Amino acid sequence: MQTTKHREARLPWYTIYPTVAEFSGAVGADAYEEWLRNLPANDPASLYLHVPFCRSKCWYCGFPTTITRHDAPIVNYLAALRDEIRLVSEHAPQALPVSDVHFGGGTPTLMGPVEFLALTEFLRRHFALAETATIAVEIDPRTFTADMAEALQAAGVNRASLGVQSFDPIVQKAINRVQSEAQTAAAVEMLRRHGVTSINFDLIFGLPHQTVQSCVETTRAAVAMRPNRLAVFGYSHIPSFIKNQRLIEEASLPGSAARAEQDAAIAVTLIAAGYREIGLDHFALPDDDLALAQKTGRLRRNSLGYSADTCKTLIGFGASAIGRVGEGYVQNEVTRDSYCRHIAAGRLATSKGYRLTDEDRARAAIIERLMCDLEADVPAICAAHGSDPIHFLDSAERLAMLAKDGIVDIEKGFVRVRRQHRFAMRVVAAAFDAFLDRVAR
After folding, report:
1. Is 295 buried (19+), middle (13-18) or exposed (0-12) by CB count in 10 A?
2. For residue range 46-103, what is the model confidence (pLDDT) as tens digits?
């Protein structure tokens, strides 16, 4: 079936373009220092802080994390994180305004309440956080405490993302993540009681022993807690690259048809509960920022996924963190030890990056609109970037095939993904990826 090949295609997720595969050591700390110095002093920026620690390893997880039962490694890492914040602030215009802060992981809330408050206060001393700033944190409900909830409130946190994945106990055991509905509900209640009013849940389909029924039951249980938004991801099984996935029995994984049914069943359940589809894999209540941004054409896609954040600058702190400044992308040293060594030596930990060309910017804009709106006015975008739309449309050879398969409609350079084929938007975006055929993914 034509649509099956488009659903199962292994392609970039296009959170950024060009993708990390194009990053190289040609862009390092010296280039990043220059880019920071050239930032407009009055343009708001977003900050991302990566805290790569967990208490246990979820076998499906592909993120670089350190498993620790002790607090000392976390405390030492936080010292390096503060030093990097200071270094970056010294290179950037003084008191750079900040509208969004995101603490990601790992599990950022493994740091103690005192340490979290100290870190947010340190940020406020080096950047001008707006009073209305969105401050978000990722949370594992299994380790979340009332003391940390109080610290989040004191720090001004107003958004939280909770890992749920599945409430099916058979699935949970198979992925080494046992987490009851009661634990999740208790975390949600604590957050809301302490002023964190915007809640996101992460769900995953395609996990071992997962069925359509268990996906629907998990979704209904999640909806009963009424999160403001949900991210629904398909599990990607690549044990040759992610060693902990070798602990998952491949025979227990659902096939392509079953995965598609699970994805569709979750979407139907969420839409019936009043959530709106956002881009490829998000759902939000009508009054959520994501839904409002989509409605007004302001939805964005960055290295963190879908966002209502319109900042052009994203500064990443911590091991493996990715940032974007005017001239391009940068990424820190991936391993924690290497990152900490660079920071301890008093230098930025940038290991690689990418300098954007005018063509990259135009292609990125087309891909972003396709990923956010399921449509892109290629001539209008090209005009805004001083580019020739014929060049982009002629080079997008896959478009003709996609149109023939009924995935897209094309009229005078306006490309629209048919809504019933929303799952194939990455395939459409890939038609505008100039690197895809040159480098094997």
Report:
1. exposed
2. 999 999 999 999 999 998 899 999 999 999 999 999 999 999 999 998 889 999 999 9
How far apart are alpha carbons 383 and 421 in whole angstroms? 28
C-alpha–C-alpha distance, residues 55 and 435, integer Å:
38
In CATH terms, 20-321 corresponds, of 3.20.20.70, 1.10.3210.10, 3.40.720.10, 3.30.300.30, to: 3.20.20.70
Cα(427)–Cα(432) distance, integer angstroms? 9
Question: Pick from 19, 20, 23: which is nearest to 432 by CA?
Answer: 19
Spatial contact of 29 and 347, defined as CB atoms under 8 Å apart: yes
- DSSP 8-state class, residue 264: H
Give the per-residue pLDDT at 6: 62
3 state SS of 367:
helix
The phi and psi torsions of 126 (rounded to 5 degrees) equal: -110, -15
Whether residue 332 contacts residue 320, with contact meaning beta carbons closer than 8 Å, is answered with yes
CATH class in words for 358-440:
mainly alpha
For residues 396 and 408, the answer to whether their CB atoms sit within 8 Å is: no
* Residue 279 falls in which region: left (phi positive, over 0), alpha (psi -120 to 50) or beta: left
Biggest alpha carbon–alpha carbon distance for the chain = 60
pLDDT per position as a tens digit, 310-325: 999 999 999 999 999 9
Tokens 């006015």 identify what position? 377
Cβ-in-10-Å burial (0-12, 13-18, 19+) of 134 comes to buried
Structure tokens at 211: 């069925």
Domain limits, the chain = 20-321, 358-440
Q: Specify the pLDDT at position 396.
A: 85
d(CA 41, CA 91): 12
The pTM of this model reads 0.94
Would 20-321 and 358-440 be classified into the same CATH topology?
A: no
Find where tokens 């403001």 sit: 228
Helical ranges in 92-236 per DSSP H: 113-126, 146-155, 169-174, 181-193, 212-224
- Rounded to 10 degrees, the C-alpha dihedral 18/21/22/25 comes to 130
pLDDT digits (tens, 9 = 90+) for 335-379: 999 999 999 999 999 999 999 999 999 999 999 999 999 999 999
- Asked whether residue 215 carries a pLDDT value surpassing 60, the answer given is yes
Tell me the C-alpha distance between 388 and 364, whole Å: 15
Q: What is the dihedral of CA 108, 110, 115, 121, to 10 degrees?
A: 20
For 12, other C-beta atoms within 10 Å of its C-beta total 19
Are 421 and 6 contacting, i.e. CB atoms less than 8 angstroms apart?
Answer: yes
